[in-house]
Amino acid sequence: MKHRDRVAASFRGFSLIEIVITVGILATVLISLVGILPVGIKSAEDAANRTVLAVILEDVHNRLEGQLLEPGEVSSSPFFYDRQGLHIHAGSDEGLKMTRLYRADARLVDIAKDSQLKHTSGLIAARIDLWWPVDPDSGAPLRQERPQETITFYLTPLTGPEWSRIDTDYRPKTEF
């Protein structure tokens, strides 16, 4: 009989306290993982947007080449882009226009008149306001208060400030 008691004792199950502690630990871990999930999704979404914005800014930069280097709205602005950052031309068909997600407004700002800036030789700031999402029908930003991103970079004519005296018809253009 002693042998049978030893065999039965070796097959005993878990106690109720061990099960409760295990369930408590598992519940804590699961709640922590569920709490981290939205942060991870937001981070992934932000990273994807940053990647697309880099593609868009490179495209806007290239589209500014050859534009007159004069303060004001860029004549071809706003620019529209789809989810991958591909440019959607203003003359595109309606089906393609419905995929618009990003909008880039470009304008040139004369900053050479600032008293703190010396010897700028006609320095112009290109300001790009990036909005998303946009209304696919109208192209208007759905968030009206301010753009999600604003990027500024600086341009200067490669010809110098006296070029207009040499060529009276000269109008500087953006060149890279």
What is the β-strand count? 6
Low-confidence stretches: none
The biggest beta sheet is recorded as: 6 strands, antiparallel
Can you give the mean pLDDT?
Answer: 83
Share of residues in strands: 15-25%
Shape summary: elongated
Order of helices and strands: HHEEEHEEEH
The structural class is alpha+beta
Share of helix among residues?
25-40%
Provide a count of the helices: 4
Query: What is the total domain count?
Result: 1
Distance between the termini: 96 Å
Radius of gyration: 31 Å
Overview of the molecule:
This protein has helices at residues 2-10, 16-64, 94-97, 163-166; strands at residues 72-73, 79-81, 87-88, 102-110, 124-131, 149-155. With 176 residues, it is of the alpha+beta class. The chain has one domain (14-166). Strands 1, 2, 3, 4, 5 and 6 form a six-stranded antiparallel β-sheet that branches. The chain is elongated, with a radius of gyration of 31 Å. The model has no long low-confidence stretch (mean pLDDT 83).
List the helices and strands and how they pair.
Elements: H1 2-10, H2 16-64, E1 72-73, E2 79-81, E3 87-88, H3 94-97, E4 102-110, E5 124-131, E6 149-155, H4 163-166
Antiparallel strand pairs: 1-4, 2-3, 2-4, 4-5, 5-6
